Amino acid sequence: MLYGRKFRAPICWDQVRERVIEGPEMIEVTKAKVAVAKEKLKEARTCQKSYADKHHRELEFQTGDHVFLKVSPARGVRRFGIKGKLSPQFIRPFKILDRVGEVSYRLALPPQLSHVHD
């Protein structure tokens, strides 16, 4: 009994008949459906990429500009002396000293943040 009613076992849901192995036909149908699903996922991915690319802009900074430093708790930088507040994701603006690489810059960091980046 289930909820005061007699429940049906899964055995009675299927009709009693001869079993036929549907090997190659079923595999082909499944492969076709998987191909359609992959194509739809590819369409959705390209559509989302085109939406994101419209809003993307390249940022380039010059020496002397001020930028915020992104920090994460996983890097060992926690709380920065702020009591009772959550850890910030970005901390105060720092001056760019020089450009090191394509997207990396050397910043004028105070001594207490010297272990964050080198």
UniProtKB/TrEMBL annotation:
GO molecular function, one term: transferase activity
PANTHER family hit by this protein: CHROMO DOMAIN-CONTAINING PROTEIN
Domain (Tf2-1-like SH3-like): residue spans on this chain: 64-117
UniProt keywords, alphabetically: Transferase
Organism: Tanacetum cinerariifolium
Lineage summary: Eukaryota, Viridiplantae, Streptophyta, Embryophyta, Tracheophyta
InterPro entries: SH3_Tf2-1
Residues forming coiled coils: none
Top-rank lineage group of the source organism: Eukaryota
Protein name, per record: Putative nucleotidyltransferase, ribonuclease H
